[in-house]
Design brief:
Layout (H helix, E strand, L loop, with lengths): L1 E3 L5 E3 L19 E5 L21 E5 L18 E3 L22 E3 L20 E3 L20 E3 L20 E3 L10 H6 L5 E3 L20 E3 L23 E2 L2 H5 L3 H8 L23 E3 L2 H4 L2
Parallel strand pairs: 3-4, 3-13, 4-5, 5-6, 6-7, 7-8, 8-9, 9-10, 10-11, 11-12
Antiparallel strand pairs: 1-2
Length: about 300
């Protein structure tokens, strides 16, 4: 059954399948292929047919119980967005092969079982968005911080104990989520060099203090500090105009430890120029047709 989504793109909805039906690849040029299977659905067994739709711009293989990156991806030279959330990936050694996907801008690998990020991640130089949340990462390779085009980096719900100082090399970073890790400190370079940051989430870590320099983040509109071991908030937060109107999230007693003048400043309405805007990880080059394989539960809605 086909329909149109909110953006006017054609959507094809099919129930979860163990393999891609051959007839699918006779339906003409595909631009967006979305495959979502229930967590307890059939394992996706065959993906070789993807080689016949080399013009794909967006591919979503969610909940397919994939254990490795499919080799068929290497034929999708025009791919801009790859979504492999909710799978069983443990290793990402095949990332090196993805260097041939020179147009890849968005890579979502959240909610897998990834134990380590290989140095080969550095070949994905065009990435603007990288989502590695809800995995089992304990450390980050220096190569990650050579991805100088990154604007959105999600590392929440991992096992990270340190954030390397090299994070300062990500000068274009606008969103960084480190919540739900084991961080005890943040490198000063995060505040001194990542001056484009708009949203920083470090909630639910083990931070005892913040490094100086938060006042340098003039574009910051959201700072989440909840669930840490902070004893006080730096007075510098009062210099971040974008945090006014509820942009600073912390325990009430911490907020009340600030001088009254700073609290009053932060309670003022946020200036219009500091309003945050949602960034999309889709791209205007995508065509108007979208193909979706949905779970049985979704197809009945």
């Amino acid at each position: 059954m086909t329909s149109c989504d909110a953006q006017g793109r054609r959507v094809l909805q099919l129930v979860a399948l163990p393999r891609l039906p051959p007839a699918l690849f006779t339906l003409g040029q595909l631009d967006v292929l979305k495959l979502e299977l229930m967590a307890d659905g059939a394992r996706l067994l065959v993906l070789t047919g993807l080689r016949r739709v080399a013009g794909l711009a967006e591919l979503r293989l969610q909940g397919c119980r994939l254990e490795r990156l499919p080799s068929a991806l290497l034929a999708l030279a025009g791919l801009r967005s790859l979504d492999l959330r909710h799978n069983h990936l443990r290793t990402l050694e095949e990332l090196l092969a993805l260097q041939h996907l020179r147009r890849l801008r968005s890579l979502r690998l959240a909610q897998n079982r990834v134990l380590a990020l290989p140095a080969s991640v550095g070949v994905l130089r065009g990435l603007v968005l990288l989502d590695l949340s809800h995995n089992q990462l304990q450390s980050l390779p220096p190569a990650l911080f050579t991805l100088r085009r990154l604007r959105r980096l999600y590392l929440d719900a991992n096992l990270l104990e340190t954030l390397p100082a090299e994070v300062g090399a990500l000068a274009l970073l606008a969103e960084l989520d480190l919540s739900g890790n084991r961080l005890e400190r943040l490198p000063p370079e995060l505040f001194s060099s990542c001056v484009e940051l708009r949203c920083l989430n470090v909630a639910h870590n083990s931070l005892c203090s913040l490094p100086p320099g938060v006042s340098g983040l003039s574009r910051l509109t959201r700072l989440d500090l909840r669930g840490n071991s902070l004893e006080e908030l730096p007075l510098e937060v009062g210099c971040c105009a974008g945090l006014r109107g509820g942009g600073l999230l912390a325990e009430g007693w911490l907020l009340h430890s600030l001088p009254q003048a700073v609290r009053d400043f932060l309670l003022q309405p946020r200036p219009r120029s500091c309003s945050s805007t949602e960034e999309s990880d889709t791209f205007p080059a995508f065509s108007t047709s979208q193909w979706c394989f949905l779970s049985a539960a979704e197809s009945q809605i």
